[in-house]
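Hi R.,

Here's the chain you asked about this morning:
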Amino acid sequence: MFFSWSLVVLLLVSSTWAEEVNVEEETSRELSVGELLERANRERKDPQLANSCYSYVGRTGGAQVVSLSRQGCLYHSTVQHELLHALGFNHEQTRSDRDNHILVYWENIIDDMEYNFYKIDTLNQGTPYDYNSVMQYERNAFSKNNRPTMVPIPNNNVAFGQATQMSRNDIDRLNRLYKC
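And here is the predicted structure, written out as tokens:
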């Protein structure tokens, strides 16, 4: 019996290790938080029903649920991203002033994923739009045809959605909201 359980544990550990190695082998650069989240949540229509990476935005009453699946969510940037959601922050591309900084190509977005781009009244905390925010998804996020879902304006060559950690603006917003 001990041998059987030991074998199961060994297989689980080795499969987890293999998954981590494959992610590292796929790329020589560090993946952005948006890329990590898309990989972890790929093909999951309702992330709250699956073991994935998610958090409700802001306090919802009682205990705050933050889901960080072991399969793809346990990265520094992903944890920061989900905790910022729990602390009340939305995606950068949903900011109230988004249309001055990002052009959204609705026709390229996967059906039922448009909500990731809906403009809302956000907690900007007097900070500028931040292309380097850990809350900003990349150019092709949720693309159904490998075409951009977002392009920065006025300069469409600006790099964005490549964050691997919180930006200075992310930290400033957090400190301003919570008076730190």
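One quick note: Strands lie at 53-55, 66-68, 102-104, 150-152.

Cheers,
M.
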